[in-house]
Amino acid sequence: MRTEQELARLCTAGDREAQGELYAQYASRLYALCYRYVADREEAQDLMHDAMIKAMDSFRSFSYSGDGSLYAWLRRLTVNVVIDRLRQMSRLRLVPLDQTIETGNTEADDDAADDIPAQALMDMVAALPSVRRTVFNMYCIDGFSHKDIAAAIGITEKGSASILAKARAQLKSQVNDYLKRTGR
Q1: Is the C-alpha dihedral spanning 167, 170, 174, 175 positive or negative?
Q2: Could you tell me which of 66, 83, 140, 161 has the fewest CB atoms within 10 Å of its CB?
């Protein structure tokens, strides 16, 4: 297996074998990333393929900056492809920012999610409305700042923070419901 730096260099030169190796090495992680945003297997597969094609066409803009930088670049490029697709499909319809967040007294403990299977948590995130799911994924999982999120999806930083708060409140409610249903 080649190093990231070698793989990137060869992909930049258009080496088909290296491109195949890149695909084999990163496709499953990028698919999982896409699936977190769209919650549809076929659409996630299409987005992953689109991102890989875009990566192959964009390697000249990649700059190796140490171990992990290739995946970080691919991840960022993939998120941008997903956001662009969601925007094209008008899936990023924003909720009014003046809606209040209703939280009851039965909020789950911060550690409550530790008792829930990973697939159940993933299903809860997938059930969020698309804009909340997008902001939640970008901020909590992919590490984007509110400034980056705002620029990517065309909202204000305050709007991003508000949407994130609503997503977290909705997830807390889903966690509480799950815990009540399962008696945990």
Answers
A1: positive
A2: 66
Helices (H), the chain: 4-12, 16-38, 41-58, 69-88, 118-126, 130-136, 146-153, 157-182
Query: Which residue has 């699936």 as its token pair?
Result: 35
Question: d(Cα 12, Cα 77) in Å, to the nearest integer?
Answer: 16
Task: Tell me the pLDDT tens digit for each residue of 84-103.
Answer: 888 887 655 444 443 333 33
C-alpha atoms less than 13 angstroms from C-alpha of 43 in its C-beta half-sphere: 13
> Is the pLDDT assigned to residue 75 strictly greater than 60?
yes
| DSSP-derived 3-state class of residue 28 | helix
pLDDT-derived band of residue 112, with 50, 70 and 90 as boundaries? low
- Alpha-carbon distance of 28 to 45, in angstroms, equals 9
Instruction: List the one residue out of 11, 154, 140, 153 whose CA is nearest residue 74.
Output: 11
Q: What b/e sequence results for 114-131 when a residue is b if at least 16 CB atoms lie within 10 Å of its CB, and e otherwise?
A: eebeeeebeebbeebbbb
The tokens for 90 are: 């008008």
**Where do the domains of the chain lie, and which CATH numbers do they carry?**
4-88 (1.10.1740.10), 112-182 (1.10.10.10)
Tokens of residue 168, six digits: 């977290």
The first and second tokens of residue 42, run together, are 């076929």
Residue 142: Cβ within 10 Å count = 17
